[in-house]
Amino acid sequence: MPELPEVEVVRRGLVEFLAGRTVETVEVLHPRPVRRHAAGPEDFVSRLKRQVFAEPARRGKYLWLPLTSGDAVLTHLGMSGQFRVQPVGAPDEPHLRVRFRFADGGGEVRFVDQRMFGGLSYSEGGAELPAEIAHIARDPFDPLFDPELATAKIRRRRTGLKRALLDQTAISGIGNIYADEALWRAKLHYARATETLKPSQIKGILEQAHAVMAEALTVGGTSFDALYVNVNGESGYFERGLNVYGQEGSPCPRDGRPIRREPFMNRSSYRCPKCQPVPRHVRW
After folding, report:
1. pLDDT in tens, 118-157
2. Could you give the C-alpha distances from 99 to 17, 27, 30, 142, 271, in angstroms and in order?
3. Which of 54, 64, 107, 219 is deepest in the core (most CB within 10 A)?
């Protein structure tokens, strides 16, 4: 699933092509991407007719498209969901699922999803924050983000540090890639027991997470394949700056030891065995 930088790149790209535009038609080409809209595809389409989009919004890894009516379209990018902007009449993408056309006759916005784990749903009253994601914590880029509150939540989890960083109800936006990169920068092992960390250490890892995601954002996020692109179909380039994630066997940029890949929550964690040694107190 795309993490905060990738979703923010998509959000910024959609601002120009959605904000202030009136929906003329919506075409659902496959029912699965609107499966979370319980009333079905026809109801989804009818609710959006003549609606006006406001500026797209994001919290953590979650993106929604507010409407001036006070409602919103909640989006789930899943593993391969993409928003693409195309001129009217441009050839359809192979995995085009939903098409938005507008009253001004300009370019259309398309939702493309190869694996169809993502999707769209209509959220009543969701313009400010959809109720469906109200439980998601604020992310480090949110002006109202409270590092003291996030630190307290993480220390109370009594779990491994990386598990706590991935818990979107404690702090949002951080996924597997940027957790590994932030942990390497902070010289902390992913299984360090959260209750053994000092508040200053947790604040430090949060600062590192913010820093690495900010760097990724400046270069369009991280793309390992064609499943993540921005609205113009361009890839991000932060994979060139990754220090540990996906770097198994490569020398650590700090001390030259080979980076290790280890199983973690049906995924993988990457770390330097010298910079990030196994601590005395662990919670796997």
Report:
1. 999 999 999 999 999 999 999 999 999 999 999 999 999 9
2. 13, 5, 11, 30, 42
3. 64
